Amino acid sequence: HLRPPSLPDTQPPSPFRFQDKVSVGSPVVWRFPTWGVAAQGTTIAVTNASESISADTVSLLNSISGELLREFSLPDGCEPRGLDTQGDLCAVTCWGLERVVFFSITTGQEIGAKGGINVGKNPIDVRISGNIVAIVNHGSDNVSFIRLDRLTEFPQQVNVGKSPIAISALNGQFFVRTV
């Protein structure tokens, strides 16, 4: 068992609270948290999947002001779930396409294989640590791994024994939550 460290009684102020709304596009309004949220410096990346808009998108917001900085479209049928960022890289899992797609945060341009990399059934979560991207395939027993210097190759899959549902990363190690 891991014992958590002592945490202060108060939390630092945040520009976003559960009741806060940030308008992304019009007239659609999202509430935090959403399926995929990741922070990089003062930029927050948020996946947007809604029946009321014509396409799935990723929105980049300023974490201090909540201002919409940029928005870019995901492939048709993406149904985004997990999202993570590292440096200029944004990785998004596409549940509907069984793929992970990579974008530049700065330009919004796709990086690597056009339309993303097939990672198997139900990619629900993603984490980037160092040169490795790990993708949880919910409903299977697998976690897929991709090297950032090989974004056009089929990922290596590792059986974790039970259906994985979430993943985190710390110092090049990945931690998988299973059902």
Overview of this protein structure:
It is built from no helices and 17 strands. The protein is mostly beta strands and 179 residues long. Strands 7, 8, 9, 10 and 11 form a five-stranded antiparallel sheet that branches. A hairpin with a 2-residue loop joins β12 and β13 (132-137). The protein is globular. Mean pLDDT is 76; it is low at 1-34.
The number of helical elements comes to 0
Global morphology: globular
Helical fraction equals: under 10%
Overall mean pLDDT: 76
Order of helices and strands: EEEEEEEEEEEEEEEEE
Rg, rounded, reads: 16 Å
Low-confidence stretches: 1-34
Helices and strands, with pairings:
Layout: E1 21-23, E2 29-31, E3 37-40, E4 43-48, E5 57-62, E6 68-73, E7 80-86, E8 89-94, E9 99-104, E10 110-111, E11 117-118, E12 123-129, E13 132-137, E14 142-147, E15 156-159, E16 164-170, E17 173-178
Antiparallel strand pairs: 1-2, 3-4, 4-5, 5-6, 7-8, 8-9, 9-10, 9-11, 12-13, 13-14, 14-15, 16-17
Task: Spell out the key features of this protein.
single chain, 179 residues, mainly beta, five-stranded antiparallel sheet, four-stranded antiparallel sheet, 0% helix, 49% strand
